[in-house]
Design a protein that fits this description.
With 114 residues, this protein is α+β, with helices and mostly antiparallel strands. It is 25% helix and 26% strand. β2 and β3 form a beta hairpin. The chain is extended, with a radius of gyration of 29 Å.
C-alpha cells in the first residue's frame, strides 16, 4: 500500500513539474543602456558599441520616464517569426523534382487480343 502511495505522489510531482516547465516559456533576457529613439512600436538602446532595436506593443509595461537619453533596462524574450527546416548533412534527400511532378493519370486497362 505504501508503494502505491509513493508512486502516486511521484507521478503527481512529475506531472506538475513538467506542466510548470512548459508554462514557463522562453528565457527572459535584459539589455541596459541609454535610449537613442523611442516610438509607440519600438525602442532603440545603445549597449556598448551596439545599437539594439526592440519592438514594443501596447501591452509593454513601462515604468518611469521613457525619453531619449534616459538610461533604461529592458526585459525581453526571443520569439521566432518563421522557421525553415533543412536536411542535416548526410541525410538522404528525397528528389525534389519527383515530389513536384503531378501524378500521371491512370491508363485504362485494355484487354489482350486473342
Amino acid at each position: 500500500m505504501k508503494t502505491m502511495r509513493l508512486l502516486a505522489v511521484l507521478f503527481t510531482g512529475l506531472l506538475l513539474g513538467s506542466a510548470s516547465a512548459v508554462a514557463a516559456g522562453a528565457k527572459t533576457y535584459q539589455v541596459t543602456g541609454p535610449v537613442l529613439e523611442v516610438t509607440d512600436t519600438m525602442i532603440t538602446v545603445q549597449k556598448g558599441k551596439e545599437t539594439w532595436q526592440i519592438d514594443r506593443t501596447k501591452d509593454t509595461k513601462v515604468t518611469g520616464d521613457l525619453k531619449v537619453g534616459a538610461k533604461v533596462t529592458i526585459m525581453y524574450r526571443m520569439t521566432a517569426e518563421s522557421i525553415e527546416g533543412k536536411a542535416a548533412k548526410g541525410d538522404a534527400k528525397a528528389p525534389a523534382a519527383d515530389a513536384a511532378k503531378p501524378a500521371e493519370p491512370a491508363k485504362a486497362a485494355v484487354p489482350a487480343k486473342k
